[in-house]
Every structure is written in structure tokens, then in C-alpha cells.
């Protein structure tokens, strides 16, 4: 199955920052005006003519990106929980602020556990995304996934320092 992994467009964290949201609350952020323009431009890509289904991470920024894509393309969508971004705390209960996320991310990048957080490892990300793709591989020949940078890095095998552009498209063949 051909899979197009597409990063969400440019998010605007102003609203969630002003509200003091941390942890999963930050995932409620919307796109910037520029982010909407980027998504509208990418929506013109011919890859959408080939797609039989567009899977979407449950975060607001990915769902809003997908909404821009389907305004111009007749592609059915399905929200898939496990396409979410890397989790710095698998319990979802310990994070209290950005500094803790930064500490867990430093552990993630270096393969250490100094922060005390049980973060997702690269293999954890691959396993959960493959569990999603496995549900579709015998039903479709071409799908898209609106997801996140860490998901794309792991599924494509990119270095953790590789910059993934907003609405960047990466193709993999998944058997």
C-alpha cells in the first residue's frame, strides 16, 4: 500500500498559551492564517487524486489541515487516535509545563531516562503507527495520513534533527 505521510500545517499556540494549557491541552491549538494558506496550496497536489482514504491524527492542527485538503478533494477521511504526535509522558498525567517536555525530549533524542518520564521511544512510535496501517493495508492501495513530525521521522527513517516542513509530504510503501 502506498502511504503519503503529511505533516500538519503551521500551528498557532497563542490561544492555548494564553489559556495556560499544558500537556494534551496544547494539542487543541488551531492553524495560523499562513498555515491555512500552506494547506490550501498543498491541497492542489495530484497525490489527492490517487488517495482512497485520508487518515487524520486527532489533534486540532491535523484535523484543521485535513479540512483544508478535503475542501478541494473528494477524499473520505477517518480520524485515527494512534497517528498522534510523540508522547513525552505515556501516562499523560505527569507533565506540568514545557520544561518537563523539553527534558523528556532530550532523553528521547539521546536514548536516556534522566527526566523521570516514561516517554515514547522511536520503536513505540513505529509500533503504534504500524498498528493503524495494518488495519488498512489489505483494503486500500493508496492512503494519506495527516500526522506529525516525529511520526514521519520514524516511519521514513529520518534523523531526529531533520526539519519536516509544514504540510511536507513523504511517501512510503507499506506491506
TrEMBL record:
Identify the GO cellular component terms for this protein: cytoplasm
Cite the Pfam families for this sequence: His_Phos_1
Alphabetical list of SUPFAM superfamilies matching this protein: Phosphoglycerate mutase-like (SSF53254)
CDD domains referenced in this protein's UniProt entry, alphabetically: HP_PGM_like
Which GO MF terms are attached to this record?
phosphatase activity
- Name it: Phosphoglycerate mutase
